[in-house]
Amino acid sequence: MSPRRHQHPHPLPLDHPLPIDADGPQPLDRTVDRRAFLARAAAVSAAAGIAATLPASAASGSAASTGSGGLAGPAAAPAGLAGKDRPGLDVASAYAKPRPAAMADPTELTLAEAAWMIRNRQISPLELVDAYLARIGAFEATYQAFNTVLADAAREAAGAAGRRQRRGPLHGMPLAIKDNYYTQGVPTTANSFLFKDFVPAFDATAVASLKAAGAIVLGKTQMGPLATTRATTPAGVITTVNAWTPTNPGVNPGGSSTGTATAVAARLAAAGTGTQTGGSITAPSNAQNLTGLKPTMGRVSLYGIIPLSYTRDHPGPLARDAKDAAIMLTAMAGEDPADPRTEGLPKVPDLIGAATPVHTGGRLRLRWSTRIGVLPGYSDGTSETAAARRAFLSAMAAIRGVTLIEVPFPDEWDLLTGNEFNNVRLPERSEPFMPYLRSDLRGFGVSVIGWLQGALMGANEYVTGQRAKLLLLERVLDQVFDRCDVVVQTSPTPFDAIGLPEIGFPIGFTSAGEPVGTILGGLPYGEDRLLSVVAAYQAVSDWHWRRPADPPAAQLRTPAGRGRISAEEAAEQSQ
Amino acid sequence: MTPAPPSDAELNTMIRTRLAMLGIDLDQLPAGTAADPETGAPGRDTALASLRSFMRGTVTPLAAYQLPAPEGTGAPADPALSQQRAPMMYPSISVEWRK
Questions:
Q1: Is the Cβ pair A567, B89 closer than 8 Å?
Q2: pLDDT greater than 90 at residue A59
Q3: Which candidate from A39, A456, A467 shows the least CB-CB separation from B87?
Q4: Which of these, A176, A182, A345, A414, could form a disulfide with A263 (CB 3.0-4.6 Å)?
Q5: ipTM higher than threshold 0.90
Q6: Residues of A in contact with B47 (CB under 8 A)
Q7: Which residues contact A428 (CB under 8 A, 6 or more apart)?
Q8: Which residue of A has its CA nearest to B63?
Q9: Is A323 part of the annotated catalytic residue set?
């Protein structure tokens, strides 16, 4: 017989003052900062949270049917971002009068320019969406940037936007959403056999926030299977090409946010979203002449995004310049009760203002005086990339407020950022996928080896890896950022392990016409400074204004034989 | 005394056993080295070779890594006494906690 629970004859509500309270300080249990506690607990709770985020395994027998017969993810929709911890979007600096050369073709416009056109009724959201859909109709067979194009839904949303009060610079903006972001009622596959039938019941928090700001989901984009490599089918067949080399699928378009990068670069979408676990925003941005911002861990909610490695997954924008990236991130960032990693952090600063160049006396200067750290070997050598880096540093040095400073690699940099410690991320991907590993190994396609590797790593090594991450961060802070405010990167991945922000942006082209980009890394929650530096550089350079030529007519159908990535190659290249 | 490095056969047994304990049967993959033409999933011999390389190339070096002792806490050779920093899954977030 179970014991009877004691019932207080007159239960008090929790907030009722107890009658025997003494005067003076109260016990801590009711005064502790709950939000700060949640943030501290994130390291523990995130693992459980991410498991809840993963769509239920069909093979586990726990899949519940959605309205469309797909897999069921978590039933709870995100509460959405209240916006109280971030600045407003509808600010004057979010709008830019278009360049005359861009007025004739709406798909040439940046977000800020298109927003100016819509605000001034020079174009309607429907006309803007139709312009992008026309390019998709003409060229998508070659680019293969999308998994799903939502033409009808986008036109309907654009029509409604045209009849509704304007919401800000994202009002009516057609966006490309990476296919690992949940989109309500729209298949979300992460390019995997495992999720081919998954239709989420709600939008990811980041998608919901973009839509609340007026943006329109134009389509879901091709990506490396489960966010691992450049975009391929789950079986490894190469799909998406670099927008700058549509006739040569051998040129790496960057991964795993490949489809978003190609869509934005090829003017099939105004901007888009990606995720970065090992360079997946900055690498495709560099490869395709875009400005991509990987924010600090926690700045953007991961709720409603199919996980890869939960301590390293970072959602962020891929855009055409720093201002557009700032507009996108302002909408995406902020506290989300559904993701405790976003709580207890500094407020989102004025990113759009930060991305607005400053002139004094008609002369450009940095918004904030900034020491740019240059790592050893960054611009050494005779390669075209090295030459572009030297030219970039020279251009920066000529901007008032910039100081270039040589900084060393921190102690044991090669070891702590090398392949072995990078692999510490792997158990994070295998653990939430255990039901699939037990029942459907072939369903992982070419990506399976990384998931098996994760299942083999022992907890001892994993704990050592977590300790090493803090060691690496402390060395980066103490040995690099004690001398500089931002630092060039020589690889896209080290700051992913320690959650620091990075921005990738264009700095030139090779003689073959392929973009050359570079990456700057910043201090925790230093996205505003990164944007200010890149905005100043983009005020004295024109790489970001350049657009790739359309594919030649002979390429307007899908060429056969784009190649295939093997499982071993996928394991080596995996993000 | 340092044990002899495991042979391929020993590693194969270890890998299969570890996976089996987790409920994962490597025989779901095609036999041999040829990939499944439909899904691209590797043959199980290919997977085993890659996993052996992972065990030797990643797990062993990670296990061998000796974190430096925090200043003033003792010799690195005594890690249990050296008051190592707590593991941190989210280092950048932890910066805010420690301000």
A1: no
A2: no
A3: A467
A4: A176
A5: yes
A6: 448-449, 452, 567
A7: A47, A307, A308, A309, A310, A311, A312, A454
A8: A461
A9: no
Q: What are the chain B neighbours of A277 within 8 Å (beta carbons)? A: none
Distance, in Å, from the CA atom of A311 to the CA atom of A365, rounded to the nearest integer, reads 37
The pair of three-digit structure tokens given for residue A246, joined into one six-digit string: 């549509």
B38 to chain A, closest Cα gap in Å: 7
Grade residue A560 by pLDDT with cuts at 50, 70 and 90: low
Annotation says A196 is catalytic: no
**CB-CB contact of A510 with A516 (8 Å):** yes
User: Among the options A209, A256, A309, A379, which is catalytic?
Assistant: A256
The total number of residues written for chain B in this structure: 99
At A31, phi and psi to the nearest 5?
A: -115, -5
Task: State the DSSP string of A476-538.
Answer: IIIIITTT-SEEE-SSSSHHHHHT--EEEEEEEE-TTS-EEEEEEEESTT-HHHHHHHHHHHH
Which residues is A404 bridged to in the sheet? A372
- The rounded distance, in Å, linking the Cα atoms of A177 and A303 is 15
> Closest residue of A to B79, CA-based?
A464
* CA A110 vs CA A116, A291, A519, A536: distances in Å: 10, 12, 21, 17
Hey, is A212 helix, strand or coil?
helix
Please identify which of the residues A280, A379, A532, A541 carries the catalytic annotation: A280
Which chain A positions have a beta carbon within 8 Å of B39's beta carbon? 193, 234-235, 442-443, 445-446
Provide the residue-wise pLDDT of chain B in tens; the chain has 99 residues: 789 999 999 999 999 999 999 999 999 999 999 999 999 999 999 999 999 999 999 999 999 999 998 878 766 667 788 888 889 899 999 888 777
Paired tokens of B16: 């299969």
Partner-chain contact A469 B54, CB within 8 Å: no
Q: Which two tokens stand for residue A256?
A: 């795993």
Q: Which residues have a Cβ under 8 Å from the Cβ of A208 and sit 6 or more positions away?
A: A77, A78, A80, A81, A202, A304
Establish whether A347 is a catalytic residue.
no
Look-up of token digits 């100081």:
A403
- Residue in B25, B54, B67 nearest the CB of A456: B54
